[in-house]
Amino acid sequence: MTWYHADIYDREKPVPSFWAGDAPPLASHVDHGPLTADMSCDVAIIGGGYTGLSAALHLVRDYHIDVVLLEAGPLGWGASGRNGGFCSLPSMSLSYSQLISRYGADEARRFMATQCEAIDLVAELSESEGFDIARQGNGTLHVAHAPSRMSELADEAEYLTRHFGFTASLLTREEVAEQHYDSTEQFGALHLQKGFGLHPLRFARGLAKAAARHGAKLFGHSEVVSWEKSAGIHLLRTKGGTLKARRVIVATNGFTQNNLERNIADRLMPVVSNIIVTRPLSEAECAAQKWQTDIPCSNTRNLLFYYRMLPDRRFLFGARGDLTGSPEAGGRRRAFMTRRLGEVFPAWRDVEITHYWRGLVCMTGRFTPAIGTMPDDSSVSFALAYHGDGVAAAPWAGRKLAQLIGGEAAFDAIPAPYRGLPPRFPVPSLKRWYLGAALGYYWLQDKQSVFGHGNERS
Question: Which residue in 21, 162, 233, 355 could disulfide with 277, CB within 3.0 to 4.6 Å?
Answer without folding.
Answer: 355
